[in-house]
UniProtKB/TrEMBL annotation:
Name of this chain's protein: Delta-aminolevulinic acid dehydratase
List of residues binding 5-aminolevulinate 1: R210, R222
Pathway assignment: Porphyrin-containing compound metabolism; protoporphyrin-IX biosynthesis; coproporphyrinogen-III from 5-aminolevulinate: step 1/4
InterPro entries noted in UniProt: ALAD, ALAD_AS, Aldolase_TIM
């Protein structure tokens, strides 16, 4: 007898009945860029995305929750930057103010705070800079790992004190999860989870984000601490295992689209939720193609996010979150 898989594709109802992968707004985390000004500033490299005031960030969080999106992640853009990124751990820092305002106005939403220094340093790196003996050019400068851990830990505690429900260390420094977990526990925030950027590559897909956050390195490069895109599975497993052992509550793969195989690997190997970061460059590519008329934006976005879910993502950080939530509601 001839097998006929097409029988189950014949109608929309049959296709819906037999789907293995389901996409829902509850799986999304909506990113918000928040700056210290009162206006909203469109980001040219990320059409449809803006830098928001604290009040604007509250409005974004309220809209996200109304669409069924349960979480936002905050990225701060301070007016003042310095060599040590002091705005990241200031009690009245921009993310701290935004977190307090959102939790006061929209208590039902979960606030994730990006825990890094790159948006706050005048050199654009994720920690304190130091020279590398014997190296020249872009590799002559790197992040001084252990002194930077203290600053990341201070940042996480400050964010938790401001009401952040989750802290998300993204610097890719050795020992950052352990240092942050210990600092949170010591400060009385043992209930605050750590969403670790466990597998984060030195990727070309971050370009629009760096434009949005003003975090392009002025010297050196991030290849000395972020992962080599050609590093392979062994390095990814090692990084994820170290973070899990140090107390990470979730593991993230960033970027998502070019590393779906790595995402699938982590899902198989670890008994922790896995988060995919659908990054700025991935977003901008679809937006540019759609605006040029080359692709159907709605179908492409939903297919892309479904692919991330199929690879194993329990949650997805995506700049498409609001649009995707609306499209899913229309499809329901």
């Amino acid at each position: 007898m001839l097998d006929r898989p097409r029988r189950l594709r014949r109608t929309p109802a049959l296709r819906a009945l037999t789907r293995e992968v389901h996409l829902h707004p509850s799986q999304f985390i909506h990113p918000i860029f928040v700056h210290e000004r009162e206006d909203e500033q469109a980001i040219a490299t990320m059409p449809g995305v803006s830098r928001h005031s604290v009040a604007g960030a509250v409005a974004q969080a309220r809209e996200a929750l109304a669409l069924g999106i349960p979480s936002v992640i905050l990225f701060g853009i301070p007016d003042h930057k310095d060599a040590h990124g002091s705005g990241a751990y200031a009690e009245d820092g921009i993310v701290q103010r935004a977190a307090r305002a959102i939790k006061d106005a929209v208590p039902g939403i979960s606030v994730v705070a990006d825990t890094c220094l790159c948006e706050y340093t005048d050199h654009g790196h994720c920690g304190v800079l130091c020279g590398v003996p014997g190296q020249t050019g872009a590799d002559a400068w790197t992040v001084d790992n252990d002194p930077s851990l203290d600053l990341l830990a201070r940042t996480a505690v400050s964010q938790a004190a401001a009401g952040a429900d989750v802290v998300a260390p993204s610097a890719m420094l050795d020992g950052q999860v352990g240092a942050i977990r210990a600092a949170l526990d010591d400060a009385g925030y043992g209930h605050v989870p750590v969403m670790s950027y466990a597998v984060k590559y030195a990727s070309a897909y971050y370009g629009p984000f760096r434009d949005a956050a003003g975090s392009t390195p002025s010297v050196g490069n991030r290849a000395t601490y972020q992962m080599d895109p050609a590093g392979g599975y062994r390095e990814a497993l090692r990084e994820a295992r170290l973070d899990a052992e140090q107390g990470a509550d979730t593991l993230m793969v960033k970027p998502a689209l070019a590393y779906l195989d790595v995402l699938s690997l982590l899902k198989r190997e670890f008994d922790l939720p896995v988060v995919a970061y659908n990054v700025s460059g991935e977003y901008a590519l679809i937006k540019a193609a759609a605006q040029a008329g080359f692709m159907d934006e709605r179908r492409t976005v939903l297919e892309t996010l479904t692919g991330m879910r199929r690879a194993g993502a329990d949650a997805i950080i995506t700049y498409h979150a609001m649009d995707a939530a609306r499209w899913l509601q229309e499809r329901a």
